[in-house]
Design brief:
Rossmann fold; 2 domains; 5-stranded parallel β-sheet; 13 strands; about 40% helix; disordered N terminus; nucleotide-binding; Cell division protein ZapE
């Protein structure tokens, strides 16, 4: 991260942010498409505008509020990469970047620590955001009507603090909370997004996540879809199937989840225990804080999974991707992937784009299996 110095560094921040994106793209061996270029230019302009605003003015004067940016488009078009690269070019402490629903978890935990205070949410917000001038939300999406009012309040709190927002999403603002029965609940938040952010579509022709993973892939891309679900298939990926005596309860707060094994940095679950029981994104985020490798085994054929189980499995994939967890999904029939025409969870196009980055045991040479 670059340390902030007033004067020349501030005046050059727009150019530095633009150059950072070009340098990163060159290092990865590709050229920005037209929609990525437009998004990169708008983010660079934002960096310059933030640098030009007096330090601390966003906390004191409405006239110094800097308009944010909302990047949206299909999965795999580089929205998160653009925002990450831009964020890395900013001065240290200038921006707070977080996965959108991870922010909710952290806010809840912080508000709990401040319980009993007159303005617990304000104290929690100050603890999380500090004096950051920008909050960057990745994967901004709303499907649950119960979240609609919470998200609206969150946006209002941040904007009242004169914080500039940057967000990435697979949805245009007007398409958030798409269920027509509940969409009206989110209309106030959508109006806030249009009022305070420039909406930039990033919808180039290529899904970059479908490109072949480098041979030395690490993190999420070092995981795999493993079929059949047996010791030999697992061994091809350096995994040793746990024995019955390794089964153990893993405690998350007051809850206990049954695991196949808990090893040093490595966590093994049966699909039925992880996805067909009432777990949720908050649980997966907590697990991501503690384990760098997950193996979810015994995944049945897609149509044999419940709709809730499929949704939870998609959430597992999304959290593993966002936290760069090495994820292995094992089962007898293309684990985690639906047959043509089968029902899929909300946002499954994003999940499918991410699964495409994992190695597939069915595509490995026979000698390596």
């Amino acid at each position: 991260m670059i340390m902030w110095h007033p004067g020349r560094d501030g005046r050059n921040l727009q150019a530095r942010a633009s150059a950072a994106v070009d340098t990163a793209a060159h290092g990865l061996g590709f050229t920005l498409d037209a929609t990525q270029r437009a998004a990169a230019d708008r983010l660079a302009l934002l960096a310059g505008q933030l640098a030009a605003a007096p330090a601390g003015a966003h906390l004191l004067h409405r006239r110094h509020h800097v308009r944010g940016v909302y990047l949206w488009g299909p999965p795999g078009r580089g929205k998160s990469w653009l925002a990450d690269t831009w964020h890395a070019a900013l001065p240290q402490g200038f921006a707070y970047r977080v996965h959108f629903h991870d922010f909710f978890r952290r806010l809840h935990d912080s508000a709990f620590r401040h319980r009993g205070e007159a303005r617990a949410v304000d104290a929690a917000m100050a603890e999380l955001v500090g004096r950051a001038r920008v909050v960057c939300f990745d994967e901004f999406h709303v499907h649950d009507p119960g979240d609609a009012m919470l998200v609206t309040r969150l946006l209002r709190e941040l904007l009242d603090r004169r914080v500039t927002l940057v967000a990435t999403s697979n949805y245009a603002p007007d398409a958030l909370l798409p269920n027509p029965l509940f969409h009206h609940l989110f209309a106030p938040a959508i109006a806030l997004l249009h009022e305070h952010l420039d909406i930039v579509e990033v919808a180039g022709p290529r899904d970059y996540r479908t490109l072949a993973a480098p041979a030395a892939a690490a993190g999420f891309r070092a995981g795999a879809l493993v079929s059949p679900d047996d010791a030999a298939s697992l061994a091809a990926f350096g995994l040793a199937a746990p024995g019955p005596d390794e089964a153990a309860d893993l405690h998350l707060g007051r809850r206990a989840l049954r695991t196949r094994a808990v090893r040093d940095g490595e966590l093994w679950f049966d699909y039925a225990q992880l996805c067909e029981t009432p777990t949720g994104t908050a649980d997966y985020l907590a697990l991501a804080d503690r384990f760098a490798t997950w193996v979810v085994g015994g995944i049945p054929a897609w149509l044999a999974c419940s709709s809730d189980g499929r949704q939870r499995l998609a959430s597992v994939v999304d959290v593993a991707y966002d936290r760069d967890i090495r994820l292995f999904l094992t089962g007898p029939d293309h684990p985690g992937r639906p047959p043509a025409g089968a029902p899929t969870p909300a946002d499954y196009t994003r999940t499918a784009s991410r699964l495409a980055q994992l190695r597939d045991s069915a595509e490995l040479p026979t000698a390596t299996r």
